[in-house]
Amino acid sequence: MAAFGIHFGTCSSCLAVYKDGQTDVIANDLGDRVTPCVVAFTEYEQSVGAAAKQGIIRNANNSICHVKKVIGRDFNDALVQDYISTWPVTVTNKDGFCQFDVEYKGKPASFSPVEIASNIYAKMLETAESHGGRGIKDAVLAVPSNFTPKQRELISEAASKAGFNVLRLINEPAAAALAYDLGQEKHNEECCVLVLRLGGTSTDATILQVNHGIYQVISSVTLEKYGGENFTDVLTENLVSEFKRQAKCDIKDNRRSMTKLRLAAEMCKHTLSTLPNAQCAVDSLYDGIDFHYNVSRGRFEILCNNLLQQCVQLIEQILREAKLSKSDINKVILCGGGANVPILQKSISECLLDSVLLTSITCDEVIAIGAAKQTAFLVGKEPGDIKRNAESNEIRCLSHDVAVKVENESNKPLIVLPKSSLIPSRKQHSFILQEEQTTLRMEIYEMGSDDQSQDLLAKIIMRDLPAGATIQSSFHLRRDGDLHITCQETTSKKEESVTIAIS
Question: How is domain 2-177+367-390 classified at the architecture level of CATH?
Answer without folding.
Answer: 2-Layer Sandwich (3.30)
